[in-house]
Amino acid sequence: xxxxxIGPPGAGKGTQAAVLSERLGVPHISTGDxxxxxxxxxxxxxxxARRYLDTGELVPDHVTSGMxxxxxxxxxxxxxxxxxxxxxxxxxxxxxxxxxxxxGCALDAVLEFAAPDEVVVARLSDxxxxxxxxxxxxxxLRVYQRLTAPLxxxxxxxxxxxxxxxxxxxxxxxxxxxxxxxxxxAG
Length: 187
Ligand code: ADP
Fold this sequence. Notes:
alpha/beta, Rossmann fold, five-stranded parallel beta sheet, globular, binds adenosine-5'-diphosphate
């Protein structure tokens, strides 16, 4: 299964991705985690990405795309993956379609985790990651609305919206139920 997870910061994508990856048997690929690893290891990519993470802006596409291409080329991603945090813009979605097309495959579904602003802001304030300060959270939400939300229309044909408010296990079941329905309908 080749899946993309979309949702505002704090919707619980990362948490759900970890559980779903386990349940579906496909690797969880989080661009946020990959960037944070580079930052911790102080690689050249990490040094370049850091200022974007710190302000909640998107890391430029030439940096992000190379990193994702490399990760998708790893053997464990050949038969499926759960992409968390990529694509985040329509151009990134086109890039992904090109990479997958060249490998003769395509996305099966895009899961949108939907949660109102007051819920995501409350969750993020509890989490305490360095980019979870109030100003940076606000900026990440703005960036999401402006650049990432348009992806929902782009993916309308394979989009599955999951209500992300509620206990983790319930949200997971909603996502898995939705995926089964989608597969049944796809025949
Ligand atoms: P969240 O979804 O909670 O905002 P992530 O861990 O997915 O957190 O992303 C953290 C940061 O990593 C983003 O604010 C951005 O700076 C960078 N980032 C992650 N994915 C991408 C991407 N696809 N394109 C550009 N920047 C990205």
